[in-house]
């Protein structure tokens, strides 16, 4: 499913303002010093003959570099965090943010190197474990990613982010049942984890269980109605389940949020092209969302007894294999999956 089960979309799939490191006051203690750093010049900035060289970046503070990252100026953030780590080599958060910057700038190998440096300084740096596993997934290395996800979950077993990422990793490895189980476990920890709902719904669609996909996607849209990804994926489930009129409304809602959302436009054209027969009975999305919330309560109650979370996967079995990788790209016609590429509280919906 397209890593948009999430191209944690968890899909799925604009950065919201956030403290990227999730380190809060702990990070501040580590990064209190912000003296001048070693100068660095962008390698991609050639010096024309007869012109002066660009001014080197100096006196970089963590806060300034983080602000540059938050503004999506990723190549500049790479330069600034490279300079910062040069004068603060013992700060794992500096290398973590260098890894994030390299990743966003499209330099996966360099991102992994920076994340690995963070983990050398702090082997229990959970965010580096999570995000380096995402880079590995993007690089087509799900087995290597799984090792890091499992290490992070050893550190924090009740992390909804970690369980969601486990679901994505298991899916890429072809184990649909364990992927579903991981997403369900994530929802027992956080019953408002919209990306797990999205990814769970897309598994059902992929397994030709579109009726089962509607409740989790309806709940995701109820919680995040301004997400074109969720609206579009709900439209896909409704269309495949035989509700073209309801599907049209979902596709229209996606386009209202993002008029450039091509997949929703294509879906809308399909269901309004004249060949679809309108449903005789309207689908009640509010009721289905409520039923899904009740289902999550049942999973939580089962988990609290120490038993494994009961699976509700229809035709899905251990032998189910997927044909498409879980990434933040198109999984099926109109569908997107993500584990939500969270640096902290923010998500990047694709």
Characterise the protein shown here.
With about 350 residues, this protein is mostly helical. The protein is built from 15 helices and no strands. It has helices at about 25-30, 60-70, 75-85, 90-105, 110-120, 125-140, 140-155, 160-170, 175-190, 195-205, 210-225, 230-240, 245-255, 260-270, 285-305. Helix 12 (about 230-240) packs parallel to helix 14.
Features:
56% helix; 15 helices; 350 residues; mainly alpha; globular; 0% strand
User: What is the residue-averaged pLDDT?
Assistant: 79
Residue runs with pLDDT of under 50 for 5 or more positions: 1-26, 28-48, 308-350
- Amount of helix: 55-70%
Strand content: under 5%
By DSSP, the count of extended strands is 0
What gap, in angstroms, lies between the N and C termini?
13 Å
- Please state the overall shape, judged from the principal axes of the Cα atoms: globular
Major sheet characteristics: none
Class from secondary-structure proportions: mainly alpha
Q: Mind telling me the C-alpha Rg?
A: 22 Å
Order of SSEs? HHHHHHHHHHHHHHH
* Number of helical regions: 15
What does the secondary structure layout of this molecule look like, with pairings?
Blueprint (H helix, E strand, L loop, with lengths): L23 H7 L31 H9 L3 H14 L4 H13 L3 H14 L4 H13 L3 H14 L4 H13 L3 H14 L4 H13 L3 H14 L4 H13 L3 H14 L4 H10 L13 H20 L46
């Amino acid at each position: 499913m397209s890593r948009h089960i999430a191209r944690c979309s968890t899909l799925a799939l604009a950065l919201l303002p956030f403290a990227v490191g999730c380190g809060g006051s702990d990070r501040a203690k580590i990064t209190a010093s912000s003296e001048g750093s070693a100068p660095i010049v962008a390698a991609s900035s050639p010096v024309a003959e007869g012109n002066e060289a660009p001014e080197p970046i100096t006196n970089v503070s963590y806060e300034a570099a983080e602000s540059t990252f938050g503004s999506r100026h990723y190549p500049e953030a790479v330069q600034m965090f490279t300079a910062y780590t040069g004068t603060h080599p013992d700060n794992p958060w500096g290398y973590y943010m260098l890894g994030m910057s390299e990743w966003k700038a499209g330099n996966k190998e360099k991102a992994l190197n920076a994340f690995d440096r963070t983990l050398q300084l702090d082997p229990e740096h959970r965010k580096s474990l999570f995000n380096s596993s995402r880079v590995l997934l993007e690089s087509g290395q799900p087995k290597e990613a799984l090792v890091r996800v499992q290490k992070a979950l050893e550190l924090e077993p009740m992390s909804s982010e970690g369980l969601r990422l486990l679901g994505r990793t298991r899916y890429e490895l072809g184990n649909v049942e364990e992927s579903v189980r991981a997403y369900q476990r994530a929802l027992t920890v956080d019953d408002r984890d919209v990306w797990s709902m999205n990814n769970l719904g897309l598994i059902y669609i992929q397994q030709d269980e579109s009726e089962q996909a509607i409740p989790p996607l309806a709940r995701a849209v109820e919680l995040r109605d301004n997400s074109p990804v969720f609206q579009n994926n709900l439209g896909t489930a409704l269309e495949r389940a035989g509700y073209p009129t309801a599907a049209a409304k979902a596709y229209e809602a996606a386009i209202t949020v993002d008029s450039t959302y091509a997949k929703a436009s294509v879906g809308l054209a399909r269901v309004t092209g004249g060949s679809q027969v309108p449903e005789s009975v309207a689908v009640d999305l509010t009721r289905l969302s409520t039923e899904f919330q009740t289902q999550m309560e049942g999973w939580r109650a089962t988990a609290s007894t120490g038993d494994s979370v009961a699976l509700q996967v229809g035709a899905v079995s251990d032998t189910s294999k997927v044909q498409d990788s879980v990434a933040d790209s198109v999984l099926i016609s109109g569908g997107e999956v993500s584990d939500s590429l969270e640096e902290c509280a923010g998500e990047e919906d694709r």
